[in-house]
Amino acid sequence: MHRINGFTVAALAAAVSLALASSPARANVSQGQMPGQGTIVSGHVSAGTAGVGTQTIVIGNASDTSGANAVINWGSGGPINPTSPAGFNLGPGSQLTFNDGTGGHGAAVLNIDSSGNPSQIYGQLVGNGTSIFVANANGIIVGAGAKISSTASVGLIGNTTLSGTGSDFGGTAGSIAYTGTGGDVTVLKGASISGTSVLIAGGGNVNVDLSAFTGTSGGTSLSAGLASSNAGAAGVNNANASLTTSGAMPSGRTLGGFGSGGSALNTGTLVLGNYSVAGLFTNQGKLTIPTTNGAMWNQGTLTSTVSTTFTSLTNDGTFNTLHGITVQGGGNLVNNGTITGAQLINVIDGSINNTGNIRGVVGLSTSSDKNWQPGAYYSITNSGTLTSYGQMTIDANRASHYGGGTNTSTGSMINTGTLQLAQGSKLQVKGWQDVYLGGQVQTGYGSNAADLSATNTIGQLVSSSGGYNATDPTPTFRTDGVLTLATPLYVTGAIVHGRQVKILSNLMSVASTGAQSGNITIVGGSEMANDYAVTVGSGATVSAHLVSIKGPTYTVLPTDGRVVNPNVLLNGTLSAGWIYLGDSGQPLSSVYSGAGGNLNFTGTDPRLTVAFTGTVGALPSAGTDFRYAYLSARSVRAPLQLSLKPVTYNKAAGSVNLLVNGSVLLVPPGYTRSPAIYGNGSAAVSSGLPNTHLVLQASGNIATGTNNFYWPGYVYLGTVGKNADGTAAPATLGNGTITLGGNFSNVLPGSTASDGGIEFITANALNLGGHTVTTNANSPISFGSGALSQQYTSGALGAGSFYGGQQNGSKVVYAALDPSMYQTDTPPAAN
Prior knowledge:
There is one protein chain. The chain is mostly beta strands. Among the domains are: 1-21 and 31-260, 3 Solenoid (Pectate Lyase C-like), CATH 2.160.20; 307-407 and 417-422, no CATH class; 664-716 and 727-830, no CATH class. Helix content is 1%, strand content 43%. The strands form eight sheets. It has a 24-stranded parallel β-sheet that branches. It has a 20-stranded parallel β-sheet, with no helix packed on it. A hairpin with a 2-residue loop joins strand 1 and strand 2. The longest helix has 9 residues, at 786-794. It starts with a strand and ends in a 7-residue tail after the last strand. 57% of the residues are buried.
């Protein structure tokens, strides 16, 4: 027994060659038509005279003890059935039988149709111990009602056949050789083909109804546009070929081979082992696939019981799997239908676009390997529904960014659809470029799906854009990625990073009881020229036990200019017990309050820490009274512990301007340099420190901590009244008290400018506690009413407590404040 292109037949010899013309339109065959004008090319052939629609041909004789092979050329004007129409055709009422004449040693016959027309088989073709092959480069049609059966093998070959080297098909060691081109092969529904092995091969379009393959056992191989393995230099496949299957394989038959040099289409029920489709494989029926696949377009039902790999995958139908899906080779995954059971989905050097449903997914990612393309956009876009029964991780080309800094591929994650995960489960959304988390996030699935709320939360949110990875040796933002949170999120905690961070909807860390708990950390990149590194949008609230906004951590400082601190715009609300706006190692540049921006403090231990290098207050507006250029804060349950940390003094116009609804405890800050002068002292005229302003208004009381308090530059402390709705009313004269817990100084050592004074604007006298107040040379200390100013000037209040500077040669000497430097600054609204 020998193998012909993957199936076993009786001993066959070398290949034959036929140069066949292209196919004209086929003619109809008569009821009893038999193959006609046959010539014996090789082998022992005994052809009886055809009767009325019947004929028996014997292949081989008793001397062929090793088996017999024969070639008959139909259509060459030969002596077998000379009056029948040329070619290998069988009418619906015809039966052609090939018998084995070797006495059971095995026989095979290759029937070559050289008529120039497709072979049409509508009758019965039988092989008794003989393998039957029909070859026609102009195509083969097996009609409904046709029956082809053999106790050996059957082959229908529509490809162009090739000759062997120095031998013919009648030898004992050859096989049929053919190119990837040729004609079409069609097996219609209602036909019947059986054999120990069956080959259906064509050089063009191969259309097969699988129900035609009958018999209790046997393997079937289907191919379109594929050259045989022994085609030599002519073994080029046809990329324009297509293989189409319909129907279903009967029980007992197996599919031993499935391949196309071009595309494939299944409209029936098909179970595949290993297969090869060079182009697009489209499924419109029911298809079960193996581990490795090519480009797949599923429009029906696709099933896999193993982890599957594709070169590309488009699913417009249903894909059921219990394992992972990998797409590699530069293709994309597009899902407009339903994918169920794929826990991990990874596309390498490609993108993911979901408009349908992906159920049971835990991880969804794109990544880049050594085959990444320059500037390629390996994105993840979801406008459908992604459902996880536990946690969910979405990563657009961030975790596996092959090649480090040389890799210019990018990738963004954009969600405008629905993400569903288990209640309390972690959600990670990351991208090398942008992350847009819009749409909606829910817990549960199906009829149990529910929007997030204060009583229905997910677990921790971790989201990162701009290629940021906090575990890098030098964590930084690799790209100008924007992280946008545009859907309400109720979480147990959150860590978000972005070159830009835009929070456009509520981000709330809550416990199952609805009480605030957990922390929210926001890390932004460097200050933006025409935008802000961190924006909290109008109407949005960021709420937690602790809210922290800061810059990135640099374990090793970069050398490419990235070490610039982020700026923040608050058009919405930060609500927490503790709010950290920067810290000493990760300061902010400026914190601006836009329309509606405010800080809301909860709990009985409210704290605000601001580590900055620029300005804290309202967006600049020409002509605005400084008392209205504030960032508002609310702390009505307990005094707000306010810790201000000007990390560097690099902006002469830098300032802090806060309006607090409640009381404030000013925590003495630590500075990078604090050359404070309290009471008597002297300093050189020029120190180089800019005059940074501190303006603090509070509807309650203002107090400093138990240590000395120093601020470099102009200071305005004012207690204010309240509006009718209970909010703090700026630029009014309040009845709160200002209490010093230590010496107070705003001296810029050596400064002789006249704009570095201190203002204590309240209706009540200061509670000095025996401490001193020292201000700059030529600068006043002001009070909220003329009566208070007069009492301090006369020494009736605060005698020996106030100090100012006067120039003395190259030094400024600080001593008792000159009486002319006591002034009054009653707020305009109080006049």
